[in-house]
Specification:
Strand content: 25-35%
Number of strands: 5
Order of helices and strands: HHEEEEEH
Radius of gyration: 17 Å
Largest sheet: 5 strands, antiparallel
Structural class: alpha+beta
Distance between the termini: 41 Å
Helix content: 10-25%
Shape: globular
Strand order of the largest sheet: 1-5-2-3-4
Length: 163
């Protein structure tokens, strides 16, 4: 993990391009990329930022598996200890926010330890709503052949695969 700081701080009522980029900074941190290498997923009208994030991760052999922990923590004893994750919740500023955490567990319990807050305040969250884990995925075409990023990208946007 290489800490990356967010550069935009707007809330949901701001124009899309001005909304906070904490998610992009958290993803960049875990994947050890620069902020410029990760799209600003919420810089669009609508609520499709999660789909945009998943589609960006897919050609990289990854997806995010999210668990709602606002009521109870999932029983994931087999997950292991010290696993990087994204932690979503409410910031001390009253806005939805994403930080980097580490899934920790012992024989008695499991918990998330805060690791990096992309916001310059470093204040993390006042409440946790969800935890997301990066999961490796095997990418293969429908015919069982090798995954081709360009072909898959055309399929996702509805273009014909024939030249």
């Amino acid at each position: 993990m290489i800490p990356v700081t967010q550069t935009l701080f707007g809330g949901p009522d701001d124009p899309p391009a001005a909304r906070g980029n904490c998610m992009a900074a958290a993803v960049a941190s875990v994947l050890e990329l620069s902020l410029s290498e990760v799209p600003h997923f919420v810089a669009h009208d609508g609520d499709d930022w999660w789909d945009r994030l998943q589609m960006w991760l897919r050609p990289r052999g990854l997806c995010l598996l999210q668990f709602d922990v606002s009521e109870a923590w999932p029983d994931m004893a087999s997950l292991g200890d010290d696993i990087p994750c994204l932690v979503g919740g409410i910031s001390p500023r009253g806005l939805s926010h994403c930080v980097v955490g580490r899934w920790r567990q012992s024989a008695e319990k499991a918990w998330v330890e805060y690791w990096h807050d992309p916001h310059p305040s470093g204040a993390f969250l006042t409440s946790v709503q969800d935890v997301s884990f990066f999961v490796g995925v095997t990418l293969a075409s429908k015919d069982g052949g090798r995954y081709d990023e360009a072909t898959e990208a055309r399929r996702l946007v509805g273009e014909s695969q024939d030249p």
